[in-house]
From TrEMBL:
Residues 59-320 form the Indole-3-glycerol phosphate synthase domain. The keyword Lyase applies. Its EC number is 4.1.1.48. GO terms for molecular function: indole-3-glycerol-phosphate synthase activity. The lineage of its organism: Eukaryota, Viridiplantae, Streptophyta, Embryophyta, Tracheophyta. This is indole-3-glycerol-phosphate synthase. Keywords: Amino-acid biosynthesis, Aromatic amino acid biosynthesis, Decarboxylase, Lyase, Tryptophan biosynthesis.
């Protein structure tokens, strides 16, 4: 079956489910998605939990908070205003192109270096945290792109950090590392200077991903679509227009990190991925040149690294330690 035909068929199935009154969570569950939405952004968490029980894991908890946060953001900056400022933002930089070029130039996976202060699994990673200083050090030492965490509650990041890094004159393309559940966040990310956004397959239905990809395309943003397991990989490979897939070695539900996840998924799907010209990013839990070599041999063209860089006294110098050599621009 032609890809387009299959795509239309999948859309039709999902639309039919909508029309038959299936809830968002039922549709998601049909696709193997375990994360539920409460869809009650005006309710208190106590009311939500009375209805749905406690969140089943940390990712679900983050998403429930995010739904409320997005509603608050929308009330502060209505969608039409955010769309307008996204339209006025300076043009995007080519995130995909920067990764492909750096991979070719250095002969090792391109680096997406993450500006990360804290995480729910590791707590605070760095006390004296200056996002601009860290971003500039990463750029100076050969990072191809940067990832800026914007979630405040769990990662102590902010959209302000993203904007500050952009305004400080950093030239690397910037990934907005956010838990996107609504299109408003994509326009907002662009308005604040993002060149790419993360879309997490574990929380988004196929139709969500397709709609968000379309918005990204309109805005010139690259989408990094994150998968963690076989089912998510299969879903994402069935969607047209995907350029970049991130394989997260860390489960966002259990925090277990296992770099062999990248290898297993690429053993099975590497050929299909190469045929489509998709670049793969190995994400999380990479600390040594051996770790980088392992995911490189598995077939990744880029790596996304936070903790092992940000924890060292000089995160820029740490890059040569991670790759076993200096990276050049
Ligand atoms: O700090 P690490 O283990 O190098 O991981 C970086 C990055 O992969 C991780 O922060 C991450 C990957 N996917 C995410 C989704 C949301 C928040 C964070 C992430």
């Amino acid at each position: 079956m032609e890809a387009l035909e299959r795509d239309q068929m999948l859309n039709a199935v999902e639309l039919e489910q909508w029309e038959s009154g299936k809830s968002v969570n039922d549709i998601a569950a049909c696709q193997g998605i375990r994360i539920r939405r409460h869809c009650r952004p005006a309710a208190s968490m106590a009311e939500i939990e009375a209805e749905m029980g406690a969140p089943r894991n940390i990712l679900e908890k983050i998403i429930w908070d995010k739904e409320i946060e997005v509603a608050q953001g929308l009330a502060r900056s209505p969608l039409n205003e955010v769309i307008e400022s996204a339209g006025k933002a300076p043009p995007t930089r080519d995130f995909y192109g920067a990764l492909a070029a750096a991979h070719k130039r250095n002969g090792v996976p391109a680096l997406i270096a993450e500006v990360k202060k804290a995480s729910p699994s590791r707590g605070v990673l760095r006390e004296n945290f200056d996002p601009v200083e860290i971003a500039q050090a990463y750029e100076k030492h050969g990072a191809a792109c940067l990832s800026i965490l914007t979630d405040e509650k769990y990662f102590q990041g902010s959209f302000e950090n993203l904007q500050k890094v952009r305004k400080a004159g950093v030239k690397c393309p910037l990934l907005c590392k956010e838990f996107v559940v609504d299109k408003w966040q994509i326009y907002y990310a662009r308005a604040m200077g993002a060149d790419a956004v993360l879309l997490i397959a574990a929380v988004l239905t196929d139709l969500d991903i397709k709609c968000f990809l379309r918005i990204c395309k309109e805005l010139g943003l690259t989408a990094l679509i994150e998968v963690h397991d076989e089912r998510e990989m299969e879903r994402v490979l069935a969607i047209n227009g995907v350029q970049l897939i991130g394989i997260n070695n860390r489960s966002l539900e259990t925090f277990i990190v296992d770099t062999s996840n990248t290898k297993t998924l690429l053993e099975k799907h590497g050929d299909a991925i190469r045929e489509k010209g998709i670049l793969v990013v190995g994400e999380s839990g990479l600390f040594t040149p051996d770790d980088v070599a392992y995911v490189q041999n598995a077939g990744v063209s880029a790596v996304l690294v936070g903790e092992s860089l940000v924890k060292q006294a000089d995160p820029g110098q740490a890059i040569a330690g991670l790759f076993g050599k200096e990276l050049v621009h």
